[in-house]
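Researcher: Quick one. two chains, 653 residues in total.
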Amino acid sequence: MTSNRSAVLFALALLAPALIYILIIVAYPLVDTIILSFTNAALRPTYDWVGWANYQRIFTAGNFTEVILRTFVWTFFSVATKMIIGTLGATLLNAAIPGQTVFRILTMPPWIVPMAIGIFMWGWMYNGQFGMISGLLQNFGVISKPWPILAQGSSAFWATIVTDVWIGVPMVTIYMLAAMQSIPKDLYEAAWTDGASRGYRFRRITLPLLVPALLTMSLLSMIATFNSFDIIWILTQGGPSNTTTTMIIDTYKTAIGSRKYGEGAARAVVICIFVSIFCIVYFRAVRKLSQGEAK
Amino acid sequence: MSQLSLKRLEKSFNEARIIKGIDLDVSEGEFVVFVGPSGCGKSTLLRMIAGLEDVSSGEIEIGGKVVNDLPPVQRGIAMVFQSYALYPHMTVFENIAFPLRVEKLSTDEVNTRVHAAAKVLQLEPRLQHRPGQLSGGQRQRVAIGRAIVRQPKIFLFDEPLSNLDAALRSEMRIELMELHKRLGSTMIYVTHDQVEAMTMADKIVVLDAGEISQVGSPLELYHKPDNLFVAGFIGSPKMNFISATVKASDGTTTTLDLGALGTIALPRKATLPVGQTVTLGVRPEHLHLGAGDFTLNVTPNIVEHLGIHTVAYSTLPAGENFIALFEGAPDITEGVAAPISFRLDQVHLFDTAGLAVY
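Model:
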């Protein structure tokens, strides 16, 4: 019994640094946010427990449901585009072409350039008066007057997605390229020996073997996109008329802008629940996949 | 007519010449083994025949037709890879059916051919499993199955048994030989394992640094090696080599000075220049305990008793390693000098250039 207990203590001692780290960095802020979401905390020095009131308010009053829907649409289009472009890009970069290394390096700038600088650059391009996009379209006669892309709700929404895709594609490309390169060359040689065309090999070997990587990258990209703050904030601050306000922007505006910490915390908890659901779905899918492999 | 002909075949990677002008004919139904040490070019040669590597110069003919520029699928070959190259996400059935699906054969035809191959390879109960659930031997069989269903003219095997443990390897060796008998197809098999080469081949091609060192039946290579390389490569334990100087050579007898070991007179038709440094070769299994045609006194450093055999390791006065293999358990002890002899007709002689002298 004693030796058993000392073994447990020893194990705990070894785990302690990691446990303490997780408790301070993850658990404490999470628990604190959850507690805060049940209070009416604001700028006042004291606050009261309000139960589910914050949650009731965000789902009944205001436009939070609309914000949730918008966030999902934003995330879906952004992630889907990133995954498609990234996977296609990786396929091209994986092909044996001359100057392969140069092309691989050329995919990196959006990722290497400090994010804020990249976003400002897009902000200028979107500008109606001196922006490149509006200017080019006018030059080619597609539009007749300046088009302030970020000043109109519908175009601003898609413009933020385009910028998010531009920033996110290199990571997807590099990740998918690494996944493609981890597929043994022998499999392709065997298929080539059997007469399989390039397209057939991609469809029957590359794609199925990429599924785990596609799943992982989609989840990571989904979490990052769902919580993407800086792109929208720098380009539009959620405007015009909230047309680019996603859950994370809404949370920031409520908690920091309006100083309603309690309500903001409730919104943050809702985001956390959504992201957790993504993770559960992902882990289930991965488990199912690995079971399928073993069957 | 030969089914496969290689004519002055060359392969270079940038500056490096890997295959240096190979000429070879393989007849229909032959089991040919390419053997040689790592880096000798045997796998490259096989991959060139398969169409996985371009030919730098020379010609590959299959069935009388030059196939240099044909893709693998049009060459009438099927290849079994060292790693098996099974598709991990597909069932055994789908793995075997893969080439047939590429050919777009009807479902019935695919079923018939896959089941026929599975029956031959005893894989029927495993058809719905995935490669990850199979043993090494079963994976190997799936890889062979995928080759069989294509009904190729020539099977190419690239070190197919090297990932298996010793027991399974000898089992699979026998299975492959039985398969060859049953199918009667031409098989080209690459290995670095001379036991595989000796046991399986109708014809062995010994490769050394991108060139053919010798082509022949296993027993030809064993009894009449053309050069030092083949003599040293074929046979286990390795042939003993003793350095010697020609004392006299008259076209019937060549007398050699073996230094501290004395002199030896060998019947040889060739005349060698007096004073030339040559090499005498004796296989460990051709040594006998006790006096004989030529007797040396050696003191074993280590004696290994293997039951069926006894192996004695010693060092000759000139510093050469000397291994003797005796049947059973003769009376030989570490550190105790013993007379060891060999018959003169079992001695090999190689000139300065390393070529056999008969």
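Chain B touches chain A through 27 residues (CB under 8 Å).
Researcher: Thanks, that's what I needed.
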